[in-house]
Write a structure and sequence with these properties.
alpha+beta, Topoisomerase II, domain 5, Gyrase A, domain 2, Topoisomerase, domain 3, 5 domains, 4-stranded mixed β-sheet, 19 helices, about 20% strand
Length: about 725
């Protein structure tokens, strides 16, 4: 049988278009650049997240991966995000997920990872081996999404909806920072302390015209998750004013006795994103190239329980301080961080300073709270409408039942209910769907209580929406509550000191810092600043830097000399003021100082610094304890040790005050029940480490008027050991 021949195909008309290759390349490259800038590399200034990070957090919230639930495989999270929201590959999603869980990269991690999520010197395990769930701070970024607080947009194929931005209950961009490389631009933003950033945001809410200098009273500098020491604050101020700047970050190092005859340098904190293996490698290269001498050995004793600990042994005969300065110059123990605060604002990349970043976030948060309040107001008004309909039905329940029973259809019943009881269709439909057991006397009482509560909530929401002051106060209260819940102490120490010489310089590091007279001031909040004085220069009154802060004590000395910090345990700890931030003599600004307890290395939080003193002074210093013991000692007679005990305290006692007390001065004890003991300082003989004579006893019964007059001359229990000098 012959096969039927197929009809001949019609000729296809050939269509060739001539296009300009240069124009086509420019258009294609611009589209690619636009996609990278807006959809991949740059964070949004409102919630501080890139699109992939936002999609990960939103999808994990949709999956119910809360902190109180179990971990799930990271591969499952990656698959859900890639299948529903993110149009790119799984490796990019997993890399972003890993970074959100790394506590050395994020100041406040947003993902709680289980398994090997990598380190600064090694990558993470594959997604099939690790598990993840949301961390508690991530809930503050995604809360209230079901209350119409942000706009939702379609995903890449239009099947699902995703938030255009997260509500963000705290300024995540400043807290966690960001880094990314786009086409023709890049971003590099430092992480900060959550409590400090929230305090600055609250201040800007209350004072919209605040300057950058005023905001820096609350945010003095970055706070890296790895700690470290920022050397020099000029770059920080430039970054906060213009959005661009550079700073030097040093490792936190101490010179310790690591053996009977061996001194070493112990590194406990490294600059941001610098790993110990990288430091060791650079150190070995410097030793082999003869650029570094004096290093005998280096050991990495880092573990999970004690954290980072890098021990560098110093050869005998070498100055550890000089070797450390050389290490700062030749290795990443001192690294630079360049600020480039580029973020998306209204869909446009902009370089932002501190005030602009906070203002963009505040405007976003005000809009979120406004939309949430409107949503809640509408829901409560709808519920109040239904409750009022139910109350009408309960008042005449028999007639309601009769109307329903006599109706042929539900539509007829709904219509008759509207006509008889003056209800609308929504109320009538709700009554028809209501279970009969709700129509009881007890339910009526509950409905009346619910009605009153709804009326009160509606009034509060209407008042909130009608007042900009109340709205800003509400945002400030929520920010402070978030800071109280998620805030942690500062880790990075800020120093206004000179960094090491550039690594490109072949000259030896200079340790010479001009010596001269200085005055160290200690504030009531524990911050210390250094005032370098010239000959004959006078000290002015301190400027107000924060609420309830003032100068507690001052001590004069030299920049390269040593001062003593008197603690509540009766110890005097030596320290050098050389690295304490310096401020102008005509305006002492306490807010920019360093926490003295962190500077001298106090570990126990129960031990406080009560005063400071010059160690070469012959003027006696008087101490007073909580149990009423008084003592004087001469600082110049103390032993030349790092710490010296100057008073033997009884169990439960602590030093509460210390001040210079020459013989012509007078000492005064004031008790909490308004008793006072006043006597000459010369009546207390300066002693060594003894306990000292007793002053007034806490909780002692009140004496008679004559007994009080005798107390001034020295009562039996309050009398100093040496009688006061006779008059004349």
């Amino acid at each position: 049988m012959a096969r039927k021949q197929a009809p001949a195909a019609e000729p296809v008309e050939e269509r060739i278009e001539d296009i300009d290759l240069e124009a086509e390349m420019q258009g294609s490259y611009l589209e690619y650049a636009y996609s990278v800038i807006y959809s991949r590399a740059l964070p949004d200034a409102r919630d501080g997240l890139k699109p992939v990070q936002r999609r990960i957090l939103y999808q994990m919230a949709e999956m119910g991966l809360r902190p109180d639930r179990g971990h799930v495989k990271s591969a499952r999270v990656v698959g859900e995000v890639m299948g529903k929201l993110h149009p790119h590959g799984d490796s990019a999603i997993y890399d972003a997920l890993v970074r959100l869980a790394q506590d050395f990269a994020m100041r406040v991690p947003l993902v709680d990872g289980h398994g090997n999520f990598g380190s600064l010197d090694d990558g993470p395990a594959a997604s099939r081996y690790t598990e993840a769930r949301l961390a508690a701070p991530a809930l503050s970024l995604t809360e209230d999404l079901d209350e119409d607080v942000v706009d939702f947009v379609p995903n890449y194929d239009g099947q699902f909806q995703q938030p255009d931005v997260l509500p963000a209950a705290y300024p995540n961009l400043l807290v966690n920072g960001a880094s990314g490389i786009a086409v023709g631009m890049a971003t590099s933003m430092a992480p900060h302390n959550l409590i400090e950033v929230v305090n600055a945001a609250v201040h800007l809410l209350e004072h919209p015209e605040a300057t950058t200098d005023e905001l820096m009273e609350f945010v003095p500098g970055p706070d890296f998750p790895s700690g470290g020491i920022v050397m020099g604050l000029d770059g920080v101020k430039d970054a906060y004013e213009t959005g661009r700047g550079a700073i030097k970050v040093r490792a936190k190092a101490s010179i310790e006795q690591i053996g009977p005859r061996r001194t070493g340098i112990v590194i406990t904190e490294l600059p941001y994103m610098v790993g110990p293996e990288r430091v060791i490698e650079k150190m070995k290269d410097a030793v082999q190239s003869k650029k570094l001498q004096g290093v005998a050995d280096v050991q990495d004793l880092t573990d999970r329980h004690h954290g980072l600990r890098l021990v560098i042994s110093i050869k005998t005969g070498f100055d550890p301080a000089a070797v450390l300065e050389l290490l700062y110059r030749l290795t990443p123990l001192e690294d630079s961080f360049n600020f480039n605060n580029v973020a998306l604002v209204d869909g446009q990349p902009r370089t932002l300073g501190l005030k602009e970043l906070l203002r963009v976030y505040i405007d976003h948060r005000l809009q979120v709270v406004t939309r949430r309040s409107r949503f809640r107001l509408a829901r409560r008004q709808e519920r109040l409408h239904l409750v009022r309909g139910l109350l009408v039905a309960i008042l005449d329940i028999d007639e309601v039942i009769q109307v329903i029973r006599s109706s042929d259809t539900s539509e007829q019943a709904r219509t008759r209910l509207c006509q008889v009881f003056d209800l609308d269709e929504v109320q009538a439909e709700y009554i028809l769907e209501l279970r009969l057991r709700r129509l009881t006397k007890f339910s009526r009482i509950e409905l009346e209580q619910e009605r009153d509560a709804l009326l009160a909530e509606i009034a509060q929401l209407e008042e909130l929406l009608g007042s900009d002051v109340l709205l800003r106060r509400k945002v400030a209260e929520e920010l402070e509550a978030t800071a109280d819940k998620l805030g942690t102490p500062r880790r990075t120490l800020l120093m206004n000191a000179k960094p090491a010489a550039p690594r490109s310089s072949k000259a030896a590091p200079s340790l010479q810092i001009a010596d001269g007279p200085t005055l160290v001031a200690l504030s009531t909040t524990g911050r210390a600043v250094r005032v370098d004085l010239t000959d004959g220069q006078q000290l002015s009154a301190p400027s107000r830097r924060s609420k309830h802060d003032a100068i507690l004590a001052t001590a004069a000395g030299t920049i390269r000399g040593e001062l003593g910090a008197i603690t509540s345990r009766g110890r005097v700890m030596r320290f050098s003021p050389i690295d304490i931030p310096s401020v102008p003599a005509n305006s002492i600004q306490l807010g920019g100082g360093v926490r003295l307890r962190d500077y001298i290395g106090l570990v126990d939080k129960s031990e406080q610094i009560v005063s400071i003193t010059a160690l070469d002074s012959d003027t006696p210093v008087a101490l007073g304890t909580a149990q009423g013991v008084v003592k004087r000692f001469v600082p110049s007679t103390l032993a030349p040790k790092p710490e010296v005990e100057v008073i033997a305290l009884k169990p439960g006692d602590a030093v509460v005050g210390a001040a210079a007390a020459p013989d012509e001065a007078e000492l005064v004890f004031v008790t909490k029940d308004a008793q006072l003991l006043r006597f000459a300082a010369a009546s207390v003989r300066p002693q060594g480490a003894a306990a000292g004579p007793r002053g007034p006893r806490p909780g002692a019964p009140r004496r008679s008027r004559r007994r009080k007059s005798l107390a001034r001359r020295g009562p039996a229990r309050g009398r100093p050991t040496t009688p006061p000098p006779k008059p004349g």
